[in-house]
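Example with several molecule types.
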Amino acid sequence: DGGITQSPKYLFRKEGQNVTLSCEQNLNHDAMYWYRQDPGQGLRLIYYSQIVNDFQKGDIAEGYSVSREKKESFPLTVTSAQKNPTAFYLCASSMLGGGQPQHFGDGTRLSIL
Amino acid sequence: QQPVQSPQAVILREGEDAVINCSSSKALYSVHWYRQKHGEAPVFLMILLKGGEQKGHEKISASFNEKKQQSSLYLTASQLSYSGTYFCGTENNAGNNRKLIWGLGTSLAVNP
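Resulting structure tokens for the full complex:
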């Protein structure tokens, strides 16, 4: 079955540590997205990518970094510069072009130790 | 500009109807509707494209009023499984450089 796989489901970060969240899709989608969701809040865009080796900052990119070396993969690194990383992180993908639905992974819940 | 969803929360008894609105101050190309249950990923419901289209998904339907830049999601004869938070995502232009701007969500609780 095609879909998006995020791992791990739960992640704990120590002070000063960088952590990487994995996102893999086998839907052959060109576009991939990372969102952050805080309790009772909507989805805020961190980074998105529409083609391999290219990505754009979203609304809250500070303290995060991404790479897109393969079409299927779009890992997100939460760096030590992100002072408040505790949140639910969602990865999504879609076909290019307007009016295309986004398909979401099951999310990674990141907490501070 | 973030779309405004209303109401913020709704409590229904099973079998009752509800309407959730999503309004934007900018001209919209499309409106996307998703439902998210607690601790889970959002699930796609439907997309409305500009042109006043109306769509349906089982007992859930939606409309898009281009003049008002507003979409409404209609839930009829609600079921317990409809509980969750409903988000609209809006797209302001067509083409490949697309980002969705999300509303803050409407919490829907359906009780027996």
